Task: structure prediction
Amino acid sequence: MDTKANLSAGADQAGGEIIAWSDILATGIEIIDEQHKQLVNLTNELFRACMRGGETLDAVFKETMSRMVEYVKFHFTFEQQMLQRVNYPDIVNHKKEHDTLIKTVLETTKEYGDGKRFVPNNFVRYLKDWIVSHIGHNDKLYAAYIMEQMKRGTITRKMLEG
Result:
């Protein structure tokens, strides 16, 4: 499977995916990868709603954005606590990136509620790009740090799970 093709804009529109899970996104930390898969699934739900449009978009977008807000808060809290436990040196910048996404999700929800109609399409593309850059690059940086520390014996699997 060509994973790069699955990360391009409109990757699998016929199948209802704008982004597909692949090794490009995998951190190698099972609990984090499972949570990231959920973010990919929510992004694809938003994408499918955009493709359907109309009343489906209205109902699904609002409901899925609500779940997205809750899930992002849960995941970011978990990830940040894990990074604290392992003394990740770039945790401050990592948290800033999380805060930026949360702010964007909340602003997008408000804009859509205010009647701005192109918000869902733009947001889904933004979210896909964010996932690719944040998970595919920045999360891999902390994953490499964790794997190196595990080899040295300074981090245990238990520390990752809390």
The chain has one domain: 28-161. Residues 1-12 have pLDDT under 50 and may be disordered. The CA atoms of residues 33 and 112 lie 30 Å apart. The radius of gyration is 17 Å.
